[in-house]
């Protein structure tokens, strides 16, 4: 899997994507609109400052209570290259992988908004060179890397119709 490089865009702890990336809170709005206002309640102007290829750096339990795949679709529309957080809501974590969005569990302390961040999911490393931060993380398993490289579970299965779970 390729190395991911981008600018850090920082959110805090316990961010529920069901609240911040869901049309249920914006009746009649489409995902393109929601992507322009995502996370505004916790960080005003967050989506407007976000640039395609940026890395979302969050606190603990990012995506807590989230069962909606729509949140990942909105983050794709925003251009999120990856999400780094100490922990994730488990349904969000699985939805992200199934929809081709890299999620890396890592200590995010010391990382600030705008920092250049580099993630090597294969080697298991997160680096913020300007702050002398190098964090070893468990490398993503080969099967997860294959799903992410394909763009998610459905594209992977479409490209590999004979794939067998074992």
Protein described:
The protein is α/β, with parallel strands linked by helices and 166 residues long. Helix content is 30%, strand content 19%. It has 7 helices and 7 strands. The protein has helices at residues 17-20, 31-37, 46-49, 70-78, 90-98, 142-150, 153-159; strands spanning 4-10, 55-57, 82-85, 102-105, 116-120, 125-128, 133-136. The protein has a 7-stranded mixed beta sheet with strand order 4-3-2-1-5-6-7, with helices on one face. α4 links the parallel β2 (55-57) and β3. α2 (31-37) packs across α4 (70-78). The radius of gyration is 15 Å and the shape is globular. The chain starts with a strand and ends in a 7-residue tail after the last helix.
The level of helicity is 25-40%
CATH architecture: Alpha-Beta Barrel
Shape: globular
Percentage beta strand: 15-25%
What strand line-up does the widest sheet have? 4-3-2-1-5-6-7
Termini gap: 23 Å
Q: CATH first level: which class?
A: Alpha Beta
Give the helices and strands, then pairings:
Blueprint: E1 4-10, H1 17-20, H2 31-37, H3 46-49, E2 55-57, H4 70-78, E3 82-85, H5 90-98, E4 102-105, E5 116-120, E6 125-128, E7 133-136, H6 142-150, H7 153-159
Parallel strand pairs: 1-2, 2-3, 3-4
Antiparallel strand pairs: 1-5, 5-6, 6-7
Helix pairs in contact: 2-4, 6-7
